[in-house]
Amino acid sequence: MSHRELDDMLGKGWRKPPFIANPKLRWALLAGFVAYLIAAFLTIEVDWARVYAGLDRGWQFVLSFTRPDFVSRASDIWEGLLESIVMTVAASVVGIAISIPIGLGAARNIAPMPVYLVCRGIVAVSRALQEIIVAILLVAIFGFGPLAGFLTLSFATIGFLSKLLAEDIESMDRVQAEAVKASGARWMQYINYGVQPQILPRLVGLSMYRIDINFRESAILGLVGAGGIGATLNTAFDRYEYDTAAAILILIIVIVMGLEYLSGVIRARVQ
Amino acid sequence: MPVIEQGGTQIWKRRTRRESLLRWFGWLLGVAVFMICWQRISDATTWFFVWDAPRIANDIWTRATPPRWEYITQLGRPIWDTLNIATLGTIIALFLSVPVAFLAARNTTPSRVFIRPIALLIIVSTRSINSLIWALLLIAIIGPGVFAGVVAIAIRSIGFCAKLLYEAIEEIDHGQVEAVTATGASRWQVMAFGIVPQIMPAFAGVAVFRWDINIRESTVLGLVGAGGIGLQLSSSLNVLAWPQVSLILLVILAAVVISEWVSAKVRGAII
Asked: Where is each ABC transmembrane type-1 domain found (chain A) (predicted)?
């Protein structure tokens, strides 16, 4: 900035520079946004009388968190929770095991083109389909029960983990891998000693994160009949047994917090 | 690095005997847990349905193709509702997550002992419960409809947005904040001119990222009655109108792909 500009600015009030520099774009975005908001508010029908009537029930629900009922449906809660955990563990193990080769195949720097395209295709399909929609289809095909949930979670794990793993492999340090190759390593040795040590910390971290997500997702798969705690939770809501629902929600939150803490400890140790 | 004496020659091993025994035991335990989990899933499965699955899948496929294209005329309104649920939910969540994030960040929280844990609890509890469960709950409280979906998405997104925001706040450059403080700025002025400009790009990125996720989630909220295209999906599934189901799935897939493209473009422009 030259001195002349500084002199011009002296004595005038300072104004914060705007976030979007181009004024036309700024105003156009703002106008479009306001127009959208008006359109959206006009088309949403809210039955305020119903909302007002429901507030009392909402307050009852909030109160039920202070006196959750773990006891009266204890066996249902226990069964559902155990099924959720079982599904999470099995699906995470299978999903991670399958996503490692697919992740290797989806990395452009180590996979040949046809393999790359096939693996990227699998990843894209798995990521585009929502868990709950996959669960609906699998329940229709395989029948009710935790098997459908297990398959859903495994399928979702593959898309998530392979993509992130492939990105990590693509951004790895080539020099180390090249050095291993130069020593005359076979392909398997190249992967084992050149690639694996570089991506292992991230793989462990991502796997822990995915286990966490799988548990959270397993809590809703029961809504469509794919096993887990969701069915119990749905029944509790349908029967207005808010204290049981609160107990289930508290258990889910506690388990997720525990998993998050555990994954933090493991990630800190690995990295 | 342990070196083991064997027949007069020294042999290098990667691990001591104790270490390798421990690792072997760990793997054994892991495999055992997985087998127990698999056993439970298998017990809860009707294997006859599973062996029958290819035939059923084929049957559903022949019923679902070709999609009933003319049904798309009835999907305009549900798509608009879905868009509204995701967008309004994200906006509400952003408004609510900003104060939570400032209370949760170590460098801006008024009290580390009392207020920060409360803010973190809000973040964890809203994040660990899926939006479908929030929708289920809100439908029981304020009745079915788009409004319940908006609120469900909003609550679910608070934790996510607040977590990413508070991490951004904790990573800000302290020099700029100190410079603004040195000019004699009040607490609020420090926030507005020292902290906010630094986290604005992160904020915009989080907003678009969460909007993209919310489009995905709001497509299925209708399954529990919270409005949007999921409502059409669930009614088509209930009457086994498979050609309509396949069309709706295609529309959802298109919406997901478009929203991901938009979010990637916008984030690319910001960062």
From this structure: 81-263
Q: Which of residues 20-79 of B touch A (CB under 8 A)?
A: 30, 33-34, 36-38, 40-42, 44-46, 49-50, 53, 56-57, 60
Q: To which H or E segment does residue A108 belong? A: none
Sorted by where each begins, the domain ranges of chain B are 1-43, 76-270
| Beta strands in chain A, from DSSP E residues, in sequence order | none
Nearest Cα to Cα of residue A157 among A108, A103, A225: A103
Integer Cα distance of A1 and A7 in angstroms: 11
Q: Which residues pair with B261 in a beta bridge?
A: none
Which are the contacts of B78, defined by CB distance < 8 A and separation ≥ 6? B222, B227, B228, B229, B231, B232
**Is the predicted ipTM greater than 0.90, yes or no?**
no
Q: What is the pLDDT of residue A7?
A: 67
Distance CA A186, CA A192 (A): 10
Nearest 5°: CA angle at B153, between B167 and B119?
A: 35
The two tokens of residue A261 are: 């803490």
Helix (H, G, I), strand (E, B) or coil at A238: helix
Name the CA radius of gyration of chain B, rounded. Answer: 26
Q: What is the pLDDT of residues B62-73, one digit of tens each?
A: 888 888 888 888
- B125 in A contact zone (CB under 8 Å): yes
pTM of the full predicted structure?
A: 0.83
Measure A5 CA to nearest chain B CA, in Å.
Answer: 22
CATH no., domain B76-270: 1.10.3720.10
